[in-house]
Design brief:
The chain is of the alpha+beta class. It has three helices and seven strands, in the order βααββββββα.
Length: 166
């Protein structure tokens, strides 16, 4: 297999990539926030017998921290988009049986398929994971249908991507 395609300079592309990658990183803050909010609400509304002090400030702080933890992913994503706004460099991908080579402007990076632990699909991208963390994305929109099918078959054969449903 050998797939090669170019990514044209597009100011919105970098922000889309950052959004896809940050969703995986920031998901844990939503779960932590939900847990803290639940703990804070239970502490405020459930009477705890034998309390000799007013615990409501403590549980109120826990509740506020939970809400802030839930809002953190939105702030981080907005900040990344603002930083990447207007960043438009051309790039490309060169994918073969052994490696994925990405280039963006003058930068070049490579990833061995042996280092990829799993691949997911999200918003028109294949997200490549190394360990539990997302490493990079491969955009589907710049590939031909034959290239997409060839790469999908390769990923399914390797066991990195689950087979498509019926």
């Amino acid at each position: 297999m050998h797939i090669r395609f170019d990514v044209p300079a597009d100011p919105a592309y970098a922000a889309r990539v950052a959004t896809v990658l940050s969703d995986v990183y920031l998901r844990k803050y939503r779960y932590i926030g939900l847990g803290l909010i639940a703990f804070g609400l239970v502490g405020l509304w459930v009477p705890i017998g034998g309390r000799n002090f007013d615990a409501s400030p403590f549980f109120t702080v826990i509740l506020v921290v939970g809400v802030l933890s839930m809002l953190f992913p939105f702030w981080a994503r907005r900040s990344a988009r603002r930083r990447l706004d207007g960043l438009a460099v051309d790039g490309g991908y060169d994918i073969n049986d052994d490696t994925v080579t990405m280039r963006s402007g003058t930068e070049r990076g490579s990833l061995d398929w042996d280092d990829v632990t799993k691949v997911t699909e999200d918003r028109g991208f294949w997200v490549l994971f190394t360990g539990r963390l997302p490493y990079t994305v491969i955009p589907q929109q710049f590939m031909t249908a034959e290239q997409q099918q060839s790469l999908r078959e390769f990923l399914v054969t390797r066991g990195s991507l689950p087979p498509a449903g019926p």
